[in-house]
C-alpha cells in the first residue's frame, strides 16, 4: 500500500477529506464529509509506519499501517514514539474530561430547535449557550451562527469523559482529546438493551419501545464503530438499531460492500435492525412515516432473535 492509498483509506474509514498537505509527525487539519458543518473538524497524522485519521465530529480515529521493512532500532524508535503519544493522549483525555464536567454542570434542561426538527418539540435536554461553551471549552466547539447547543454527557463506566454538542442546524461537535471508545449516553432504562449511533435515533427508538410496552435501556454510542465496543460491555439481551449507510465512495469494498452502520452492527454479534432506505436512520423513518414502521422493525428484530435462540 502506498502512502497516498493509506491516507485515503484512513480518511475514508471515518468520513473525512484527505488533507491537501501534511508534515511527518504533525496533525494536519482537514474537513469532514459533513459539508460546511464539518469544516476543520478532521485531523490526519502521517508517520514513518502509519497514517492516523481523526474525525472530531464523531470522535472516531482510524489507523492504517504502512508495509515497510524496518530495522530493530527503527522498531524501537517507533515503539517509543507510540508510548509517548499514548501518554500524551491520556493527559489530553483527562483534561477534556474536566472541561466536559464543567460544561455539563453549567447546562440546564430546555427545549431545543434540533429536537423540534427531529420530531420531539416537547422533549427537554441539557442545553448551554454559545458564549459559555466558547468560554469553557474553546471557540472550535461553536459553529458559525450557533446560539445554543444540546449538551450530551459522554460516559465510560459512569464517569463523564467527554461531551457531544448538537447545534440548532444539526452540527455535532466533540471535545478535542475526549475519550469516545466504549463510551455511551443512556436515555432510558429497562430489562433489555438497545444500542444506536445518534441521539435523535435513540429518542425515536425509546418512543417505539415505550409504545410497545418493552421497558428497555437505550444507549447512544455516537458512531457505528463504537457500537462494537459498547456491545462488549452489555450482559443480557441486547439489540442494535443501525443506520442504513451507503458503502464508502472511495473504497466501496472496505466494509465488504456494506455501509458502515450494517457492517459494525454485524461485527457487534448482536441482533440488529435498520430502515430499508439507504442513507436513512431510525429517526428519519420515524419523522417520515410515523412510529408504526419503527415498531415493526423492533418486533421483527426481536422475533428473529427469539427464533435463533429457540433453534
From TrEMBL:
Species name: Pseudaminobacter salicylatoxidans
Domain of life the protein comes from: Bacteria
Name recorded for this polypeptide: Putative DNA primase/helicase
Keyword Nucleotide-binding belongs to the record: yes
Keywords attached to this entry: ATP-binding, Helicase, Hydrolase, Nucleotide-binding
GO molecular function, one term: helicase activity
Amino acid at each position: 500500500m502506498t502512502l497516498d492509498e493509506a491516507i485515503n483509506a484512513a480518511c475514508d474509514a471515518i468520513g473525512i477529506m484527505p488533507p491537501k498537505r501534511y508534515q511527518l509527525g504533525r496533525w494536519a487539519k482537514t474537513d469532514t464529509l459533513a459539508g460546511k458543518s464539518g469544516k476543520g473538524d478532521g485531523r490526519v497524522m502521517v508517520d514513518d509506519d502509519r497514517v492516523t485519521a481523526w474525525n472530531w465530529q464523531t470522535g472516531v480515529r482510524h489507523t492504517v499501517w504502512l508495509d515497510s521493512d524496518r530495522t530493530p532500532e527503527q522498531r524501537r524508535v517507533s515503539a517509543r514514539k507510540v508510548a509517548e503519544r499514548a501518554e500524551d493522549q491520556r493527559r489530553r483525555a483527562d483534561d477534556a474530561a474536566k472541561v466536559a464536567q464543567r460544561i455539563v454542570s453549567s447546562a440546564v434542561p430546555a427545549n431545543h430547535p434540533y429536537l423540534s426538527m427531529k420530531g420531539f418539540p416537547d422533549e427537554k435536554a441539557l442545553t448551554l449557550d454559545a458564549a459559555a461553551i466558547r468560554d469553557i471549552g474553546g471557540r472550535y466547539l461553536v459553529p458559525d451562527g450557533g446560539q445554543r447547543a444540546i449538551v450530551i454527557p459522554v460516559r465510560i463506566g459512569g464517569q463523564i469523559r467527554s461531551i457531544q454538542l448538537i447545534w440548532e442546524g444539526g452540527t455535532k461537535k466533540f471535545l478535542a482529546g475526549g475519550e469516545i471508545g466504549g463510551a455511551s449516553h443512556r436515555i432510558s432504562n429497562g430489562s433489555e438493551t438497545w444500542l444506536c449511533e445518534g441521539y435523535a435515533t435513540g429518542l425515536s427508538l425509546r418512543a417505539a419501545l415505550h409504545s410497545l410496552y418493552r421497558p428497555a435501556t437505550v444507549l447512544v454510542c455516537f458512531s457505528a464503530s463504537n457500537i462494537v465496543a459498547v456491545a462488549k460491555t452489555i450482559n443480557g439481551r441486547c439489540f442494535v438499531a443501525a443506520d442504513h449507510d451507503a458503502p464508502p465512495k472511495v473504497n466501496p469494498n472496505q466494509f465488504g460492500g456494506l455501509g458502515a452502520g450494517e457492517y459494525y452492527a454485524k461485527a457487534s454479534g448482536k441482533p440488529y435492525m435498520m430502515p430499508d432506505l439507504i442513507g436513512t436512520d431510525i429517526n428519519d423513518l420515524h419523522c417520515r412515516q410515523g412510529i408504526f414502521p419503527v415498531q415493526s422493525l423492533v418486533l421483527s428484530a426481536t422475533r428473529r432473535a427469539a427464533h435463533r435462540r429457540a433453534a
